[in-house]
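Hey, weird one. I pasted the Small ribosomal subunit protein bS6 sequence into the form twice and got a warning about non-standard characters only the second time. First submission, copied straight from the form history:
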Amino acid sequence: MKHYEVLFILKPTLTEDEIKERVDFVKEIITKNGGEVASVIEMGARKLAYTIDKYERGVYFVIYFTAPTSLIEELVRNLRYNEDVIRFLTVKYENKKEVAAWEKLSKGIKFSPARAPRKPRKPRVEENIEASQKEEEEVQE
């Protein structure tokens, strides 16, 4: 089974109960088709970057799940025809680094890519000359 994430934006005019129903509907699609939901993260109502279908705001949700590849087609089909979903995006995590990131994100841990430790900077030739001249001056005094 592959690791996936689906981000979708719901209409801001929905009530709390309607929002919960839509999220449960998406989770149900995933589980009925052989997937397993790892976590659901509600990002809350946010301003959209641009107006979509006359809406300037939307309620964001991210669901992390594992599933066979055949499930994605069914999930996309259902999200596309749901009128309450303004936009959605499905992301597949493939290699080991991405799956490790998926593990952290699905547990709610903020992901920051590992940085390679910096190598100490080699002094430039001019700095070596200046340093040796200062040492000579100190020795002469």
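That's the output from the first submission. The warning seems to come from a hidden character in my clipboard, not from the data itself. Helices lie at 16-32, 69-81, 96-106, 125-140.
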